[in-house]
Amino acid sequence: MHHAPPFLASLVIGLAVAFLFGLAARLLRMPPLVGYLVAGVVVGPNTPGVSIDGAFTSTMAEVGVGLLLFGVGLHFRSRDLLAVWRVAVPGATAQVAISTLLGAALAMALPGLGLGPALVFGLTLAIASTAVATRALEERVRLSGEAGRIALGWLVLQDLLVVLGLVLVPAASGGHDGIAGAALLAVAKLASFAALMLVVGRRTLPWGLERVARSGSRELFTLAVVAVALGVAFGASTFFGVSFALGAFFAGVVLGESDLGHQAAAETLPLQRIFAAIFFVSVGMLLDPRSVLDAPLVSLLALAVVLLGTGGGTLLLLVALRVPPATAATVAAALAQIGEFSFVLMELAIGQGILPSALRGPILLGSFGAILLMPLTFRAFAALAARMPDRSRPAHESEERLRAVPHRPEGHAIVVGYGRVGVLVTAALRRHDLPVIVVEDDRQRAGMLRAQGVPVLWGNATQPEMLEAAGVVRARLLIVTLPLAWEARRVVELAQAANPGLAVTVRAHQDAEVDWLRHQDSTGLAVMGEREVALGIADFALQRMGVAAGLAQSTVDALRRRRVADAAAAGLGA
């Protein structure tokens, strides 16, 4: 009997259990990630029954976090992050300090822990998970707004602080000289990585992907994007001491500055979702229910530090920094949890003998419990924000929004496909100075349009990210000229799901496609090329044979409304 390799079995079992528990969570009207966490507990080594390989799952989880942060970086511009630095730098620094001191106060109450180990314990309770926060904001459609930009700036600064923490913890045994040297080295490596990405990466990465895109192979482009994301992340971790996830995030930010960003995001999204699920399963696998039962009070207090120190502290600091209370509540609720970096710091401190292994359970419960409670945290913080006075700067929100979206299309037409049909439709719209955006998946053709000053997005419109980038929710008309029927249907379904009032016209090839559009939208228009050619010839023939122009036109209009078979039968009957 053939036995599956352990890694393959772990991957299959992990994904299957994640799906089942994620579906169950969804049916209970809870976020799927709650189901993923429970799935991790079920297949983890600390519960009886089937268990999967923890080391393999952790590796896949790190890949997932890297891809997730790469995707987030693709949607953000460096100017967006710089715009929130005035809030993120003082706010995140103060929040990490507050949470660390609260956690240290809890640890100091335990026997045998000095100030140094207590501060390390506090730091593990102070760093929010970027993967959890971005997923929570994405589910609430807040990731691309002001809350998302503030949260990302906050999380990036937290990640930089924890990188320093990961360097300083093992260096602590070397005395003050060792700590100072390690800190300087860490700062120098971070600065070197940032300079390399801004000076070299900003030019070479888009240039390389541009050449791959011009080859016309979508699979090669997808492979190149994943290789860039994980390659930069691996290089950042190996040579610069930067976290894998942070390296991937900066790779995304650099690529997001180019016009390749939207399609790169669309190509990697399925991988992000799959590996992100594995990440949450890996978090659940770490939890040992017995370790929580051994120290229930400490575990509950650690959870309280996460919710009040990280979440509550963030809310108060943001309001103090004159962020609107509703936005502050959203950011604070998304950050009221801990995750991957806390686990790395925890294991490092336990391995160095700085923290006792008995504190692993309280730290894990602080993460597990905070993530499970996120739906309630969002509601509680929103209710609290509603009672707070709004002392935000009057122009704050509008200025940030304008900076993030400098050219926001409104009431425009979206032309999908710039072939023989699309080129004429676009020319007609531009002749009357009507706003239009073209979505074209041929890289060379898209480059030609951009050189001519035509607003164009390169990418495949069957992916929702491309339609979102084209502003489908604010569009007035969708014109689909794609040659493949299934692609046209997919585009129409995605567009109408995002904007139910959108008018649609489609290039069709068969009567079934015309009937389908009429069923979808009775006010839409489906045009069959062969039929229009036939009707044009028929109109010419009728008039040449002596039929009056008005009568010929009415005949053509009547035939246009009929199926081809019906028209033939009507002609024979006559």
TrEMBL record:
Single GO MF annotation: antiporter activity
One Gene Ontology biological process: proton transmembrane transport
Subcellular location, record wording: Membrane
GO cellular component entries: membrane
InterPro entries: Cation/H_exchanger_TM, Na+/solute_symporter_sf, NAD(P)-bd_dom_sf, RCK_N
Keyword annotations from UniProtKB, A to Z: Membrane, Transmembrane, Transmembrane helix, Transport
The keyword Transferase belongs to this UniProt entry's keyword annotation: no
Domain RCK N-terminal: 410-528
Domain of life: Bacteria
Main localization (coarse): membrane
Membrane recorded as keyword: yes
Segments passing through the bilayer: 7-28, 55-76, 88-110, 116-138, 150-172, 178-200, 220-251, 271-288, 300-321, 327-350, 362-386
Bilayer topology annotation: Multi-pass membrane protein
Pfam family, one: Na_H_Exchanger
Family membership noted in the UniProt record: Belongs to the monovalent cation:proton antiporter 2 (CPA2) transporter (TC 2.A.37) family.
Name listed for the protein in its UniProt record: CPA2 family monovalent cation:H+ antiporter-2
Organism: Muricoccus pecuniae
